[in-house]
Amino acid sequence: MKSHNIFNIPFKTAKLGLHEYHFQVDDNFFANFEDSVVEKGKFDIKVNMDKKETMLDLEFEIKGSINNPCDRCLASIDVPVEAMERIVVKFDDFGKEDTDEVIYISTEETNLNVANLIYEFVSLSLPISNTIDCEANDYEFCDQKVLDYYDELEEQSEKLEEEEIEEQSKIWDALKDIKLN
């Protein structure tokens, strides 16, 4: 990934207490990550940093959208994404391993680059299904040809199901006529 100096948080010179940082990421940002799960998207990221004597407490507020094909009709749609993530940054010169909730940086560091964290948090907050509420938007974004095709398939499926039920009913009707005595 290319260096993203604009994502550096200068924590060393910051006073103890709360600090707020704002970042915007778009297609160019995601293009810098190999095999990125996001190709088109825009996000506003607010980072609240609580600087303490021995650590930083970072809270990421992520709001934006990705542009993907709809899973229902394949039309290009903007899928809204919102998330809140938190991570603790501790200072350590002994090479402790990072965990999901805590990352360690050298006491010699003066800046914390949050580009990778932003990418990870956005990627983890993506919805499993790329759909929007079509009815609420009067099917404005939907590919009507595909939706018509789905309706056609649904009608055919219902018709086949009715025929199958009718066929099974005939079998049971024939069994009712059998006398067991």
Automatic annotation (TrEMBL):
Coiled coil in keyword set: yes
Pfam families from the UniProt entry: YceD
UniProt feature coiled coil, ranges: 143-170
InterPro entries the record matches: YceD
Keywords: Coiled coil
Name by which UniProt lists this protein: DUF177 domain-containing protein
